[in-house]
Design goal:
Blueprint: E1 3-10, E2 14-19, E3 23-29, E4 32-35, E5 41-44, H1 46-49, E6 59-62, E7 65-66, E8 69-70, H2 73-88, E9 95-101, H3 108-120, E10 123-129, H4 131-138, E11 149-154, E12 159-165, E13 168-175, H5 179-194, E14 196-197, H6 200-209, E15 221-228, E16 234-240, H7 241-264, H8 268-277, E17 279-282, H9 291-299, E18 303-305, H10 312-326
Helix pairs in contact: 2-3, 4-10, 5-6, 5-7
Bound molecules: adenosine-5'-triphosphate (ATP).
Amino acid sequence: MFGIDIGVDLGTANVLVHVKGKGIVLDEPSVVAIDSQTKKVVAVGEEARRMLGRTPGHIVATRPMREGVIADFDTTEIMLRHFIQRAIGNNPFKRLRVMICVPSGITSVEEKAVVEAATRSGAKQVDLITEPKAAAIGAGLDIYEPSGSMVVDIGGGTTDVAVLSLGEIVTSNSIRVAGDEFDEAIIRYIKKEYSLLIGERTAEDIKIRVVSVYPGARHEEMDIRGRDMISGLPKTVTVRSEEMREALQETVDLIVAATKQVLEVTPPELAADIFDKGIVLTGGGALLYGLDKLMIEELQIPVHIASDPMSCVVHGTGMALDYMAKISKNSLFGFGRKSATGAL
Ligand SMILES: Nc1ncnc2c1ncn2[C@@H]1O[C@H](COP(=O)(O)OP(=O)(O)OP(=O)(O)O)[C@@H](O)[C@H]1O
């Protein structure tokens, strides 16, 4: 009653905030627009995303986190503070506890910056949780039992693969190949095949509406506009599902290979559990059409897409906070807290 508990998924593509008792109250792209002359923030989130690639010279719309790391430290801090404050509103008398899931590649200096940003937003206690653990909890896997659970979280910047048992990560792998890299692969393909330059947003549209990574699974087509590299003028071409599979093949193969690598070093008992339960896909990249089917075929293991895969991490942070409230700080079932301002 006297506190607010919030979970934050600080993702490279999207930031989601879960407030205890209310659910997800904020879901916005990780984009900030700044006026380079006045250094003032012009827009944050969806409003800033609409400005990407369309700003006048002095306004710069950027994604401060890329490839699973914080590329622009100060802007990430501004963004995090803005979102936390928007999510909790004006509640100066309530004790704020925050659990933040950070991109897997961030350094300890960056972790400290994230904790500081949350503290400056009024948090009295800040805990960090690793991405695969939050994703697994949020996907409904009981990671605390003595049995292997496997999650593949495909976000914007990174794919995190992990096998968990008794609340801890047993084997894992993280690669900087995920949704952004799919978009890049589409841009490269369209450039090579059609001599057409397209932007990131068009590439993402193609990925969501046309792409299939499993042969023969989808038959969509889409007219796309861009700039002809030869004439320099606007041009329209039509792209189809089957050719887009070709465009993404190499990138998808890297994700399958990273998953295989983790399975290969997983202890046999846990591997047997995973064979029974299947692998769970989370993150926006889990929605890539046909990916589950492709992984089943390549790995010969059942693969399930979590329900609402883009919200698993933020739900996991909220649930981790609930668990933490229930257990003592020295419990066996710790959350792998990476750092905190509160007493550990
Ligand atoms: N239907 C879809 N098909 C394919 N990709 C999708 C779909 N919907 C969303 N995505 C992609 O999912 C990615 C974002 O996923 P998510 O929000 O889980 O990432 P994130 O948590 O911000 O990133 P990270 O985990 O790397 O920090 C984007 O690249 C987006 O284009």
